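Late entry, written up from scratch paper. The run itself happened at the end of the previous shift, but nothing got recorded in the book at the time, so transcribing now.
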Amino acid sequence: MYNKIPFTIEEQINQLQQRGLFISNAGLAKHFLSHISYYRLAGYWWPMQKEPKDLHIFKDNSKFEDVIALYNFDRELRVVIFDAIEKIEISLRTKLIYHLSHEFGAWWFQNLEIFINVPEAIKTLAVIEEEITRSKDVFIKSHKTKHKDDLRFPPSWKTLELTSFGSLSKIYGNLKNDIKSKDIIAKELGLVNHTFLPSWLQSLAQIRNYCAHHSRLWNKNLPGRPKLLPNPPCLWIEQVPEAKDMHMLYIHLCCIRYLLNIIQPQNNFRTQLVELLEKYPSVDSNALGLKINWQNEPLWL
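Output as recorded:
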């Protein structure tokens, strides 16, 4: 039976000190712990603890200020990544609307015949319907007023503007493989055909959700595994991570950079990452899966 009781902030600080975490300024630590919960920060000091972890004893020279530096680094990293994924999301949305509307008409997303998994498509439509119902956007209200007798959703160029990146990635991945637009979109994004893009989108949608919900990315075991092209048509990395490292953030950063180089060739994603790592020199880049010479890879030049 779980029997732990809540600690005051002073008790939290005392426990951390007893376990070996050096806190030079208790007042500052109290300030941070009053605004950032103990267990949110625990994800950042976890690697600082000795084995066995269940004893919660810190390694020598573990400092509270390094925990806060890691926390701030991760927070700023999420902002950079979220901004980059926004560009990818908008590009995907644009291409889905454009190509599928020309191939199947304005209401293609309600055409269940073009999807592999019909029950999954219906679930996605249910989520989209909720988004439309909740929408306060003028263009949706205006459409409902002008076309109140039309029981269909608004056309794709209106409806999909409300659709989340997660739903967009599901829509794309669920398209039948003989749909011409599926290959066209993949090719326009530098991924040759429909074989690879779905896994990239699913992984990025997961990371986007972590960013949106302020979840830790540093030193995180990411569930997504992007399927990599054997010979990408655009600049890529020469030192591809081993299978055991595919859960780390680096390969996802590479996927983001690859897509951004097509969507926004003059992007500053590399510069933002380099400046962030320079700003926080105490951050262990190995916990992100970054290779020693990652900046010199063709993809990152």
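The chain has a mean pLDDT of 95.
(Scratch paper discarded after transcription.)
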